[in-house]
Amino acid sequence: MRYHYTYDDLVGAFTKLRFFDQHEAVFISGDLGKLGLGDFGNREQSLVSLLNALIDVFGDSTTIMTSTFTHDLVNTDKVFDKEKTLSMHGAVANFFINHPKSVRSSHPFTSFCAIGPKAEYLCGEDLIHPYGIDSPYDKFLSLQNPLTISLGLPPNITCSLVHHAEVVMNVPYRYIKEFSHKVIQNGVELEKNYCLPVVYREVEATRNKNVRIFDIFKELNQVKEADVGRGKIYCYQSNELFKSMIAQFKNNIYCWFDSPPKNRPYRK
User: Is the sign of the CA dihedral 70, 164, 66, 63 positive or negative?
Assistant: First the structure.
């Protein structure tokens, strides 16, 4: 395993990870730093090379999407500006935010960002809810052969799609909480209401970081891997994972936990 990796290494990895000739959208997440040092001069060039490699392999008709969450703003008076507020998700997310051709959704805590022909469709609508009907994830899954790529981290660690599945399945341990938060829209500061699905504070249960969900998913579906630098890149078909999640929640509504909660305040 080489500590350094090149542009050709990225292209080779993404080519290996494709499931079909055409993927209309690719969701990318993870930690680029886990791959080691890229032979690109600096971090900015590494990020440019990452995006270029994705476009070279998947084509310019494919839209690249990522999460640009800012959960650190919850219950603060920090103003959210989708054009400027940086993400807690690190270098890849912030590269997307600053890209001149990107479109970012406007939820102040759970935003997504996309580059490509479907960017406006995926992230252009001002929505109260980050998950569920017509959300960025819902629209992403509506596209042809949506793919998820995890850089450097196992996919169970980077998968926020599970929260969309939780909302769709109305899991009992979450409720919808409304937040009032200041945002910048069209250069004007506004105070608006947004919602988040949050876990009841009294729930006592251990979260298993999607390990069970992915173990069951991998029994019937493939999670591809490619070595790059000192790490790995992982890839799976997003629609297949979502279908597996829905089936798992139908079978065990508490599959996100190690075991069902000891106390269930939502029974009151």
Answer: negative
Lookup: tokens for 121? 């469709």
Distance CA 191, CA 207 (A): 33
State mean pLDDT over 44-58.
96
The answer, yes or no, to whether residue 195 has pLDDT greater than 60, is yes
d(CA 127, CA 125): 6
248 lies in which domain range?
Answer: 4-267
CB 2 within 8 A of CB 228: no
| pTM for the full predicted model | 0.96
Of 2, 60, 3, 62, the closest CA to residue 28 belongs to 62
The one-letter amino acid code at 181 reads H
Q: Residue 266's Cα: distance from chain center in Å?
A: 28
Please name the residue that has the structure tokens 């017509």: 134
| pLDDT average, residue stretch 162-169 | 98
Q: Which residue, among 265, 144, 173, 95, has the nearest Cα to 162 in the 3D structure? A: 173
Number of structural domains in the chain: 1
Do residues 184 and 79 lie in contact, with contact meaning Cβ atoms separated by under 8 Å?
yes
Q: What are the strands of the beta sheet with 231-237, ordered from one edge?
A: 102-104, 112-115, 63-67, 25-30, 147-151, 231-237, 224-228
